[in-house]
Recover the amino acids of this structure.
């Protein structure tokens, strides 16, 4: 038995250990703390990549916590898993890789970005807790554990959003986020209670195996969809998103993006793997599609009028979430019909999942560049910025790459995923892909505005002393830039190796169940 | 907050310490009786709330060593995750002490009995770790909430981001 | 019918909490509403695990009875209570800081972030 079987647990345990040792490491000084912050994040990313490789080669990984063997369920041979299990299929592992890369970039960025503030031992501990929560959400195979990790991530992010505690706006944003998110989490708990009351199990696979759609299940589904859509910031429940993303320190915002993706993961895990084909009617898929279209359009139209750079980007992230909901919603629509699945459903899912990694990377990078502007120029208001391209060439370069990717300009990775979404949604309803195209154009317009006002034009007298940001921040941004360029240069490789296994794993409900129930365990 | 009357303070002196003893009892018997690390730790942290209410902030804040309780928190958490990681030879959080004899290693006889304190393996150990952590954490919460929002007095400057 | 009464109570508590969060203007009352929602979720879990006439689910203390109440929802509830404590403590701290910054607890006046 090689140590590889422990990878699912290690991916969660390493950042957790990092969080608990962070106060001790901070006592040894600034260098030790920064080294710890970056080192543990790098190790987590490395372990996630290893886990992803292992899942691709040897199938869904199961890990039973605290048992005599990593794949034991019950001593009596009964196949219902009563212990806490981690179930990692290709989609989970994909999400873990995406999230941990974003966490690594944010940690690298934060070393220089946060250096003149106090309380950084707590910052490091909360940062790792947030990473743990995010990774736990995507790796767990247990509904209640999902709730616990969601709450770990939420509580850590409340603290991090309010990190600049002498800023009234930060506290206000954190409070708003907290009320919304706590109610959402409690709705998830109530939904889990409904499912537990029906099936006496909290394991996702066991619930999925026994699920027959009745009233209790429908109520649970409504609660889960409302709460998880709220957590990932789709339109009717998006009001916390701009505030929290704007007021959090930039490195944290980069990680918050990944956490919202973990909520999105939860939404699709519930829809595809737990409910799956028994959703039957088209109500749920169309709800998700309509939520997605509304998010796209309202998000981008709110973004165009913003003056503050991070707030503008936060509204764009509402709009980008819409693309993923649209792609995966179309996939859900085609789930029970093999012909439709082959025609357009699978393409839409590939587009949605590919957009997910693209979005996390370029949106994280955009927030980091916004943080760099804030660090260097001391303002986030577009009216105060101007002519920074001369003094901050590297930041400008990375901003251009990220902006081109989010706007979906042809050679970049954003274009590939958006194209997949356009062509598949066109088959369902042409108006959907027209909406998506309009959103894309508006996104381009809004980022041209940012580029033009902040980086081009005459240099402002107030910004004469502005220098390029320190190397730690540049490194953090360049990690994400390299990933974006890699995805841009090798779209075929990433589609067939990264995205397709994840999409297949998401569609394959029977595989998800049988990995735990019967045979596998 | 001002200190309360001499009656309250005397009663606090005499009885509040039993709270600590009861809390530690709940922590140690966590694997036998209802309760456990969190509940016991919360009971012990109530002791600090009593002291704070009875004696007022002027006496309590010099008495309470916040760095000591931060250490409580860190040590508890490290003990917890350390116990989990030691089990990694088999699986994460594996109960490697149960049924081995030695520390927390006795087995419990079948049927109704009053329980064996020296049983249950790492569960007892983790209860204690959580108990230590919760004592530290909850009393720190009390302390900081009482001190209010004067953190910037410690750090020396207002922290409002990179605004200029 | 009487067996369903606890579920009715859960629903009422949940709606009361939701009402408090949505319509109350005072931050402390909003915090109370959030706590009420947490309480209703915990109560739902406990009610789900209850079996009429069941005994305490501790192996050595149960005595010779046929039925025990389910231990798993109780464990889930304990976890949820701990999380709820962390959330409440943080929420009250944030309210304290909001009061320091804005000098009021009225949500209508705490709105520097808009649009």
């Amino acid at each position: 038995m090689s140590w590889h079987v422990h990878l699912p647990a290690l991916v969660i345990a390493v950042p957790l250990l990092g969080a608990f040792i962070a106060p001790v490491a901070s006592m040894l000084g600034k260098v030790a703390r920064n080294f710890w912050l970056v080192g543990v994040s790098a190790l987590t990313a490395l372990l996630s990549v290893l886990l992803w490789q292992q899942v691709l080669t040897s199938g869904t990984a199961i890990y039973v916590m605290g048992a005599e063997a990593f794949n034991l369920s019950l001593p009596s041979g009964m196949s219902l898993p009563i212990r806490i299990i981690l179930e990692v299929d290709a989609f989970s592992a994909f999400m873990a890789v995406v999230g941990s890369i974003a966490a690594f970039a944010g940690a690298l960025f934060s070393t220089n970005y946060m250096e003149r503030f106090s309380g950084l031992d707590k910052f490091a501990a909360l940062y790792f807790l947030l990473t743990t929560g995010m990774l736990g959400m995507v790796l767990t195979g247990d509904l209640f554990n999902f709730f616990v990790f969601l709450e770990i991530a939420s509580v850590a992010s409340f603290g991090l959003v309010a990190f600049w505690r002498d800023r009234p706006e930060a506290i206000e944003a954190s409070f708003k986020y907290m009320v919304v998110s706590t109610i959402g989490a409690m709705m998830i708990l109530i939904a889990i209670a409904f499912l537990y009351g029906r099936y006496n199990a909290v394991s996702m696979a066991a619930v999925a195996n026994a699920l027959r759609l009745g009233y209790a299940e429908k109520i649970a589904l409504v609660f889960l969809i409302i709460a998880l859509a709220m957590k990932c910031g789709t339109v009717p429940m998006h009001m916390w998103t701009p505030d929290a993303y704007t007021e959090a320190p930039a490195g944290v915002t980069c990680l918050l993006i990944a956490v919202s993706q973990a909520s999105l993961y939860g939404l699709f895990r519930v829809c595809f793997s737990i409910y799956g084909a028994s959703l039957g009617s088209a109500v749920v898929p169309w709800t998700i599609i309509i939520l997605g279209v509304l998010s796209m359009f309202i998000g981008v139209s709110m973004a165009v009028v913003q003056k503050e750079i991070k707030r503008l980007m936060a509204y764009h992230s509402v709009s980008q979430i819409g693309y993923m909901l649209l792609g995966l919603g179309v996939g859900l629509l085609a789930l029970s019909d093999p012909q439709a699945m082959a025609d357009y459903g699978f393409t839409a899912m590939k587009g949605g999942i590919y957009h997910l990694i693209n979005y996390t990377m370029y949106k994280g990078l955009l927030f980091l560049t916004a943080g760099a502007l804030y660090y260097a120029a001391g303002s986030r208001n577009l009216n105060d910025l101007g002519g920074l391209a001369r003094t901050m060439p590297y930041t400008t370069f990375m901003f251009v790459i990220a902006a081109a990717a989010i706007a979906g300009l042809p050679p970049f990775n954003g274009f590939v995923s958006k194209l997949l979404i356009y062509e598949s949604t066109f088959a369902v309803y042409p108006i959907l892909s027209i909406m998506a195209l309009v959103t894309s154009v508006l996104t381009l317009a809004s980022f041209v505005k940012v580029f033009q006002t902040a980086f081009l034009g005459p240099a402002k007298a107030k910004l004469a002393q502005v220098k390029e940001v320190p190397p730690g921040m540049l490194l953090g941004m360049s990690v994400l830039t390299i990933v974006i360029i890699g995805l841009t240069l090798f779209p075929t490789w990433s589609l067939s190796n990264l995205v397709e296994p994840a999409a297949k794993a998401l569609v394959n409900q029977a595989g998800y169940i049988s990995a735990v129930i019967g045979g596998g365990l | 907050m001002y200190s309360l009357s001499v009656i309250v303070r005397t009663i606090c002196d005499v009885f509040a310490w039993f709270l600590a003893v009861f809390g530690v009892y709940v922590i140690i018997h966590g694997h036998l009786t209802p309760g456990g690390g969190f509940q016991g730790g919360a009971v012990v942290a109530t002791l600090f709330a009593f002291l704070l209410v009875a004696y007022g902030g002027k006496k309590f804040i010099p008495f309470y060593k916040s760095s000591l309780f931060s250490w409580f928190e860190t040590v508890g958490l490290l003990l917890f995750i350390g116990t989990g990681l030691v089990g990694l030879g088999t699986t994460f959080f594996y109960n490697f002490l149960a049924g081995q004899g030695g520390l927390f290693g006795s087995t419990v006889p079948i049927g109704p009995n009053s329980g064996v304190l020296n049983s249950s393996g790492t569960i007892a150990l983790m209860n204690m770790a959580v108990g230590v952590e919760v004592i530290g954490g909850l009393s720190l919460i009390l302390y900081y909430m009482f001190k209010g929002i004067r953190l910037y007095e410690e750090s020396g400057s207002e922290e409002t981001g990179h605004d200029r | 019918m009487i067996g369903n009464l606890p579920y009715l109570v859960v629903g009422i508590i949940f709606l009361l909490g939701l009402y408090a969060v949505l319509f109350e203007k005072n931050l402390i009352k909003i915090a109370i509403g959030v706590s009420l929602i947490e309480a209703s979720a915990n109560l739902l879990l406990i009610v789900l695990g209850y079996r009429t006439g069941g005994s305490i689910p501790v192996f050595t203390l149960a005595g010779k009875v046929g039925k025990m109440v389910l231990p798993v929802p109780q464990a889930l509830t304990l976890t949820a209570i701990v999380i709820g404590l962390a959330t409440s403590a943080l929420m009250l701290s944030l309210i304290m800081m909001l009061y320091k910054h804005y000098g009021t607890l009225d949500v209508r006046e705490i709105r520097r972030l808009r649009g």
Q: What stands out?
A: The mean pLDDT of chain B is 83. The interface with chain C takes residues 32-34, 36, 38, 108, 112-115, 141, 144-145, 148-149 of chain B (CB under 8 Å). The two ends of chain B are 37 Å apart (CA to CA).
